[in-house]
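Supplementary Methods. Inverse-folding protocol.

Structures were first reduced to a discrete structure-token string of length 210. This string, shown here, constituted the complete conditioning input.
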């Protein structure tokens, strides 16, 4: 009889433990979900080098790499030379939009770490749709080996997702954001990629590697 009572007590204790564990996991999942929903880069793959190792190379699943100050984007087929301070101070997120277009979001680290809705320096978006001829942010089209023919668009951040209110963080953001044009101008398209410059004169024309 005593053995039976003991077995029942153990079973009850086990059941209670499982309920509490389930509640804990549910709460943690809800917390993670809530955090993710605040981020416009939810579910992205980030590419960040080791800050204390100048020779460190980080690689995303898509084959893109960051070695020193040189960022190579494999799907898009281009190389970018990061300005001073960017290799250790910028996150490079690869994201998929609701239209299944691919985005590269460049973020200032300290601002983004403090508030997941801040820190955007600029965004490069791929689309299979040909942009308007007078689209000021058009970067032309690339016949990417992995994505097929894609059209690239450059987008500046909005006030809502750029510079944070905190003065110190805002100073870090402003310092790196001033070098955005230098980063864009450094982009070189692989020579084996078929690049077509934007139709409009006010688009961003990329260089093609020799």
């Amino acid at each position: 009889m005593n053995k039976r009572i003991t077995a029942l007590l153990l079973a009850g204790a086990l059941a209670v433990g499982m309920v509490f564990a389930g509640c804990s996991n549910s709460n943690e999942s809800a917390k993670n979900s809530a955090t993710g929903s605040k981020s416009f880069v939810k579910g992205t793959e980030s590419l960040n080098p080791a800050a204390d190792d100048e020779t460190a190379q980080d690689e995303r699943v898509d084959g893109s790499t960051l070695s020193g100050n040189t960022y190579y984007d494999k799907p898009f087929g281009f190389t970018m030379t990061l300005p001073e301070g960017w290799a250790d101070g910028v996150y490079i997120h690869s994201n998929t939009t609701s239209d299944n277009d691919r985005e590269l979001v460049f973020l200032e680290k300290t601002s983004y770490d403090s508030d997941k809705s801040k820190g955007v320096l600029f965004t490069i978006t791929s689309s299979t749709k040909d942009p308007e001829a007078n689209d000021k942010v058009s970067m032309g089209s690339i016949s990417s080996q992995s994505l097929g023919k894609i059209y690239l668009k450059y987008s500046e951040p909005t006030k809502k997702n750029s510079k944070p209110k905190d003065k110190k963080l805002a100073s870090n953001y402003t310092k790196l954001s001033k070098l955005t044009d230098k980063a864009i101008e450094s982009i070189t398209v692989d020579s084996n990629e078929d690049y077509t410059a934007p139709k409009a004169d006010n688009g961003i024309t990329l260089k093609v590697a020799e």
